[in-house]
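Exercise 3.2. Students should predict the tertiary structure of the chain below and write it as structure tokens, then compare their answer with the key that follows.

Predict this chain's 3D structure.
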Amino acid sequence: MDLIKFDIRFIKRAGIFFTCAAFVLSIFTDYNPIENDSLLKFITFGFVCCVILYTIDIARNIINDGIAEQDHQRDEELRRKHRDHQAKKREEEQAQRRDEEEQTRRYTSVSAEVQMCFDIFKLPYDATFDDVKKKYRTMIKFYHPDRHSANDNVKAYANKKAQALNNAFDILKKEHFLET
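Answer key:
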């Protein structure tokens, strides 16, 4: 590209030089364009070369300015997308942090007695009432004393376990799920 610029600059200067030289030569000599038109052709050729090369130079500058404007617009678009992406990422991180804080607050707000009740049902502390009710029904069916009438030790254990399930369910129903 530098070689092309050098060539164009050289040709422009040469065209200007030859045009000026021919013009000066025609002034200081008794030049009659009607008699000798080779000098006129030389002057015209130099002038046309200069005009063409200046036109090419102007067109190249306009194209370069257009390319620079497109590059600037593309860079602005990329910067805007990057800012939007960073803002979205920050919002997602903040939302995740809020969710984690809410989860922690929910776990720490549960009393020790309620935590023990959830542990009896082997459920997480953020379980819904429907989850607790479903787990209660399946466990109470399994530990119901009438199902274990064959052995007195097993029947006594099932009776204790059923009472613990009933108490835990009542505590959760009255204390925990009425608050939320």
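Discussion points: Residues 2-106 form one domain. The two ends are 75 Å apart (CA to CA).
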